[in-house]
């Protein structure tokens, strides 16, 4: 079953604010598949983190889609 990378990541990873005393400025990235913490990031940089992921997905997306067309032309 085909599923875009952003949709897979949205289902796999969960970002939640840290509730520990003195750590309210942190957010935790939880991997639902592996059932473990992937990263702990500053809540202030949360939007930047999401923006960087979106840019990576955007940069990789067209190349993956274009590859079959390139091979078809080469054949």
Task: Describe what you observe in this structure.
By secondary structure, this protein is of the alpha+beta class. It is 49% helix and 24% strand. The chain has 2 helices and 3 strands. It has a 3-stranded antiparallel beta sheet with strand order 1-2-3. A hairpin with an 8-residue loop joins strand 1 and strand 2 (26-31).
Average pLDDT number:
74
Shape: flat
The SS-based structural class is alpha+beta
Work out the strand percent.
15-25%
Number-wise, the strands total 3
Q: Helices and strands, in N-to-C order? A: HEEEH
Uncertain ranges: none
**Could you give the distance between the termini?**
26 Å
Major β-sheet annotation: 3 strands, antiparallel
The helix tally amounts to 2
* Largest sheet strand order: 1-2-3
Q: Helical amount among residues, as a percent range?
A: 40-55%
Radius of gyration: 17 Å
Task: Describe the protein's topology.
Layout: H1 5-12, E1 13-17, E2 26-31, E3 36-42, H2 46-74
Antiparallel strand pairs: 1-2, 2-3
Task: Note the main attributes of this structure.
3-stranded antiparallel sheet, flat
In short:
With 75 residues, the chain is of the alpha+beta class.
